[in-house]
Write a sequence for this structure.
């Protein structure tokens, strides 16, 4: 995605409720889906979803719409940093330190082929990938 003539990468948060991957466009206690001409109502866990959002906010992710990007879900997020260089380092820190911890907690990360991050200077190098995040709700 382009923002102010710079390519930015988005993290797209989705939730997995018993195999149903959802990305709701608003907060509510339920979510309706249509599958094979049958309607299902998924009882959501708003507290769990808010905890996930708070964790990502602590990692400097913000809704894409707050950066001026239109037509994105409020769960499509990017890292807002003072510079492109700072953004690269934030993404690298997220991938190297936070993602492994989240994986241990049941989060799943899908990779989009368009994601490319190059960090030089001996800290990290090569091609790095990540995008969609799907925390598993293992609560009640």
């Amino acid at each position: 995605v382009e923002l102010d003539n710079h390519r930015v990468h988005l993290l797209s948060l989705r939730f997995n409720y018993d195999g149903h991957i959802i990305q709701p466009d608003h907060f509510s206690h339920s979510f309706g889906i249509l599958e094979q001409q049958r309607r299902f109502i998924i009882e959501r866990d708003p507290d769990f979803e808010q905890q996930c959002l708070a964790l990502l906010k602590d990692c400097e992710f913000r809704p894409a719409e707050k950066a001026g990007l239109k037509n994105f879900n409020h769960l499509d997020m990017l890292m807002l940093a003072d510079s492109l260089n700072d953004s690269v380092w934030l993404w690298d820190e997220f991938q190297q330190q936070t993602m492994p911890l989240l994986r241990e907690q049941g989060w799943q990360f899908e990779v989009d082929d368009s994601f490319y991050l190059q960090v030089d200077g001996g800290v990290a190098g090569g091609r790095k990938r990540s995008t969609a995040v799907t925390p598993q709700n293992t609560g009640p």
